[in-house]
Q: What sequence folds into this?
């Protein structure tokens, strides 16, 4: 079993049938932990004497991904069915895993949606490799493309029309992040009916936004989303359109961060329909489209965001990424260059432009950009590896080996860097060193689920 320094918070909840799926679930769990992704399997992670249901539902609540290992007994499992319902209700990123040759039709009734991304596998090693790849890729992209939140403070500060006695004082407390008194008073007022109830709902929505922001910035996206959903309900009852739009915006950021990109697109669409000049909403919807692989739609939204805020470096960087995914590297380079002009300390913009230059076989320009990225962040293992690959393009294998070695020292589990160094040794005729590196790369891939 993988050694773990801590058990929570989890990012992945793995559902399975104990008789037919435990071995698969345990193998996947270990591979995810090896890749730095905390994963929950009840049999492995519940402490002796720990309340089963409470611990299980807590793990599911805090997880972003819900993996269900589909085996022959799953359609009969009341426990797995209940977990699926909870995951769907909580808008988790659902990843059903089905063995090659098994019939998906038997499992379709378990799920509400018809457009799920099934992961087919031939063995437990194949399943682990595919899940680790899918989740780590999405996590890397999530980190590279964060959503812009922060609409709540303006909504909290916005004056409530014809405020009842005590409202201004409670709003001041909310501005300082103190929500208890405002929530308590608001819940009293909503029972009174009429204008007082509407003010109560208005105040309650603001208090829930403040608490949701607190959860969001602590990384508790599930908790934030639940509070934002409550804020939406209160804002709707308050009759304040702008407040409701702000609640949709914040809910969109939390929902998108948790990986429910289709719902995020819908929420930001509602915001844009009511606030067509909200550049941040266009940017956020672009991020959601980007995650969905809908790059043309992402480019259109980033362009609108730039029209509203020509100094938004992240929009240029992300649009460059979308252009790159469409193979439009010249356009990508232009956008990365603009992003660098606006944010010259952004290591990722330099690295990304280096990748675009590399795709055009402009290796010297790529090396210059990777070098600048490394200067900005000397621990940027990814840029060292990329620069090594660019040196390989110039057949400068010794320099490539030096960069791969640095990447490995920074990240000893970097399988690709070992593999690339093996290729460089091979190109220099050093077969023994190449074999050692290839073996190490293969060992790491197996440990990370890529056997």
A:
């Amino acid at each position: 079993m993988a050694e773990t320094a801590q058990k929570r918070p989890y990012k992945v909840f793995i559902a399975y049938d104990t008789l037919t799926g435990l071995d698969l679930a345990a193998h996947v769990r270990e591979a995810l932990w090896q890749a730095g992704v905390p994963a929950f399997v009840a049999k492995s992670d519940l402490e002796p004497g720990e309340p089963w249901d409470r611990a299980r539902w807590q793990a599911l609540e805090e997880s972003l991904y819900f993996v269900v290992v589909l085996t022959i007994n799953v359609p009969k499992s009341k426990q797995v069915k209940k977990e699926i319902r909870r995951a769907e209700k909580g808008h988790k990123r659902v990843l059903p895993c089905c063995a090659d040759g098994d019939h998906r039709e038997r499992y379709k009734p378990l799920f509400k949606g018809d457009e799920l991304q099934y992961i087919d596998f031939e063995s437990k090693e194949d399943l682990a490799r595919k899940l680790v790849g899918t989740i780590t890729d999405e996590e890397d992209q999530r980190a590279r493309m964060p959503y812009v939140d922060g609409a709540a403070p303006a909504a909290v500060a916005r004056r409530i029309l014809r405020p009842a006695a005590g409202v201004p004082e409670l709003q001041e407390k909310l501005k300082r992040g103190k929500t208890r008194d405002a929530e308590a008073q608001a819940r009293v007022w909503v029972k009174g009916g009429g204008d007082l109830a509407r003010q109560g709902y208005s105040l309650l929505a603001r208090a829930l936004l403040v608490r949701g922001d607190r959860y969001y910035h602590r990384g508790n996206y599930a908790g934030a989303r639940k509070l934002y959903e409550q804020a939406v309900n209160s804002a709707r009852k308050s009759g304040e359109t702008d407040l409701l739009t702000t609640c949709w915006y914040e809910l969109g950021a939390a929902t998108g961060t948790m990986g429910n990109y289709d719902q995020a697109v819908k929420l930001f669409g509602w915001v844009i329909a009511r606030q067509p000049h909200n550049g941040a909403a266009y940017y956020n919807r672009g991020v959601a489209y980007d995650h969905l692989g809908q790059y043309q739609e992402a480019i259109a939204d980033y362009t609108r965001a730039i029209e509203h805020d020509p100094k938004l470096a992240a929009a240029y960087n992300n649009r460059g990424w979308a252009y790159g995914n469409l193979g439009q590297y010249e356009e990508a380079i232009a956008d990365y260059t603009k992003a660098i002009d606006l944010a010259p300390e952004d290591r990722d913009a330099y690295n990304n432009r280096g990748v675009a230059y590399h795709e055009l076989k402009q290796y010297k320009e790529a090396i210059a950009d990777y070098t600048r990225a490394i200067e900005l962040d000397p621990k940027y293992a990814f840029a060292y590896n990329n620069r090594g690959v660019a040196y390989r393009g110039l057949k400068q294998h010794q320099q490539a080996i030096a960069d791969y070695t640095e990447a490995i020292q920074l990240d000893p589990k970097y399988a690709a860097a070992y593999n690339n160094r093996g290729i460089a040794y091979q190109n220099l005729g050093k077969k023994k060193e190449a074999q050692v590196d290839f073996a190490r790369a293969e060992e790491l891939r197996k440990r990370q689920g890529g056997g």
